[in-house]
Write a structure and sequence with these properties.
alpha+beta, two-stranded antiparallel sheet, 21% helix, 7 helices, 277 residues
Length: 277
């Protein structure tokens, strides 16, 4: 639990950098919208970069981690939700509070000003809280799409999954197609947690908790229909203190592990806070 108070002073101590790989256990679909349609193409294409390579947007990964953490901590309740958008059919509600020790708001940031709650009186927040967590776009590791995989793909790097929606009265099928990055594909992931005070130390554990929750949930679209199962692998946690940035000091490797549990063991250990001091 965070020990932040309204008087906590913020000054950069250093940055925790967590890098590794995101492995697709099933096909992964993170949609690009329908700005353009190609003849014979999938109804729902995946997002791609300027070179035509699929990638995982940092916003998609960050948003999913936040959502899972809100649910796990009981923060996704009507009295704790505020509207980011009230556009009919496109409502967006997220957790936000004015409590100084709210770890979700500390990790993901807090907007100032008056915000309408889903239930109850509006939230009047007089100050902003800087987001400690940055999640970067995750590029595809091209060699993870092997030559054998390419032989069976619908496109050079992706597959097309066909689905049917069945009308319950007429039994008429409504076919649709979903473009997916295939199982076995890997992406490079990078998380950076700014440590702005000693009280920020527990936030690293919250990030790892969210990552483990994601491994038993889904990322992107079609999760309830088999898509989006992922796992993290080959993780490395590095500490860069103020001296690293101010005078070219060295960095410290805190953990190298094949999975999230290995990094969690270090972060939840007794010596972690001392390593950041």
């Amino acid at each position: 639990m965070s020990s932040h108070t309204a008087e906590t002073q913020l000054k950069l101590i250093g940055k925790l950098i967590l890098e590794g790989e995101l492995e697709c256990q099933t096909g992964l679909h993170i949609g690009a919208g329908k700005g353009s349609l190609e003849i014979g193409g999938a109804d729902n294409p995946v997002v791609k970069d300027a070179f035509g390579m699929p990638y995982v947007p940092g916003s998609s990964l960050r948003g999913k981690l936040r959502s899972l953490l809100e649910q796990a901590t009981g923060a996704a309740v009507p009295s704790e939700l505020v509207y980011l958008s009230k556009r009919k059919g496109q409502e967006v509600r997220i957790h936000q509070s004015d409590r100084p020790d709210d770890e979700i708001c500390l990790l993901f940031g807090r907007n100032p000003g008056r915000m309408e709650k889903f239930s109850g009186d509006p939230l009047d927040n007089g100050h902003a809280t800087p987001a400690r967590l940055s999640v970067f776009d995750s590029p595809l590791i091209a060699e993870s799409i092997t030559a054998q995989m390419r032989e069976n793909l619908d496109d050079e790097l992706t597959e097309v999954k066909s689905e049917n929606a069945i009308d319950r009265i007429t039994s008429q099928a409504n076919p649709r197609t979903l473009e997916r990055v295939p199982a076995g594909a890997r992406f490079k992931v990078r998380f950076v947690v700014d440590m702005l005070c000693p009280e920020d130390t527990p936030l690293a554990a919250r990030l790892l908790e969210a990552m483990r929750l994601l491994e038993d949930d889904s990322l992107g679209g079609g999760g309830s229909r088999g898509s989006g199962r992922v796992r993290f692998a080959g993780l490395k946690l590095t500490w860069r203190n103020r001296a690293f940035y101010a005078s070219g000091g060295g960095e410290q490797t805190l953990a190298e592990a094949p999975d999230v549990a290995g990094v969690q063991a270090v972060v939840n250990g007794e010596g972690f806070a001392a390593a950041l001091a």
